[in-house]
Amino acid sequence: MSRTEPVTLTNMCMVKNKDKILVLDRNDRVWPGLTFPGGHVESHESFHDSVVRELKEETGLTIKNPKMVGVKQFYDHDDHRYLVFFYICDQFSGTVKASNEGSLKWMTKQELMQHKLAYNFDRDLPVYFDSEISEHILDGKRDELF
Known about the structure:
146 residues; alpha+beta; two-stranded antiparallel sheet; nine-stranded mixed beta sheet
């Protein structure tokens, strides 16, 4: 049995500014709706460096000291593992500037919950807001938080 498998590595970061959260309204046909900014980890790139780079590309902000708070895993349409590393950051510089990924808006948690979220993003949110939860496993058989 092989100990390796094809894996897609990605990240997502909740940027906080006091009681507000930076939210991305994705203009993606496949996964539209509100979510947090993030993206793919490049070859030979650290997870930390990838989230810093992705946030700069998608928001214009330079984040500092992002903290990994959890992970989501599922299997894509090719039955390859897909990992999303979840981060929270409250230190940043720069000015928010939208990218081709979608528009950006500062919202409270309550405002976020009243809008159309990206598919299944509501199931990711407990990882960000509950320090007792650090993992979201989603596959054809289960949708569980640990």
